[in-house]
Amino acid sequence: MGRCEPNGAPLMSRALCLALMGRLKRGAGFAAIALASASAAAQDQTGHHSPSSFAEETVARFEALVPQATFSSDPLDPLQVSVTDHPEWGEATLNLHRLYGYCQTVELEVCRSEIERLMIALTAKVEDPDASDLRIIIRDAQYWAYTEQIAKETGSLPVHRKIGDDLYAILALDGAQTIRVAVPADLEAFGLSQTVAWERAAEQTGLVIPPLPLGRDFAGGLLGFEGDEYTGTMLLYLPQWAEIAARAGPDLVVSITSDQLVIAGVMPEGERLEEFKTLVAQDCAAAARCISPHVYRFRDGQWAIAN
Prior knowledge:
The protein has 307 residues and is of the alpha+beta class. It has helices at 14-21, 27-46, 51-65, 97-103, 108-123, 141-154, 184-190, 194-206, 238-248, 271-285; strands at residues 70-74, 77-86, 90-95, 134-140, 160-162, 167-174, 179-181, 223-226, 252-258, 261-266, 295-299, 302-305. It is built from 10 helices and 12 strands.
């Protein structure tokens, strides 16, 4: 029997960990049915059968909340919302794709709660950051492609490093209500070189994430690491993971479905790994802000998608 060792409050993703421990005997087939049923229920309750209707209603709420700003959906992609004249941000772009997907898989009240989180961020005062706010977030290729698109408009690409097939470590600034990516101008304002900024951000992020499984025994199954924001940044520390992988062997697997959950363990190729991949993808689809739907192995000093 495997084990799941949480750090922090229970999360919906606990179902993934328990399923892989063998405590949910119905396996991936049951998970798929449950997910489909939740999606149908959410659509029936919210009436959001299309991205355009979801975007229209959400934008209307934004406009009522921040009447000084102008919100406009892209005609070709209604879930991409441009913001101008925001009293704190000036100009910005809101990507509602993952929020829309999340709201198709959860109950109405849960969806509304997540929208409320975004609305709080819309009205939060933007404070001047300093070097003590430096953190590091991990995001996938989809997020990075979107970031590059925005950077073409702003002319400033966030400070980043690639740490795997489709995973990027990005310098960020931690605020009271929001986390924003850091650009070279931020480091200049702090008087820090990129090298020093990365070192400081890694140290400060390391203080708020679960301990890495150095010296841990994976023989009993999977280990789940839960926490608040930045738990996904556990995957940043490649030299330490090299030590973990050397001890665990080539069958080490890791998933990073959100900033609140990382799962690591040993799993050889075969049916159980394929079930793991399915459950991870489903968990990602059900997460409000999924990082990656993939399962990874540690190869050549970086994270490789387990094909």
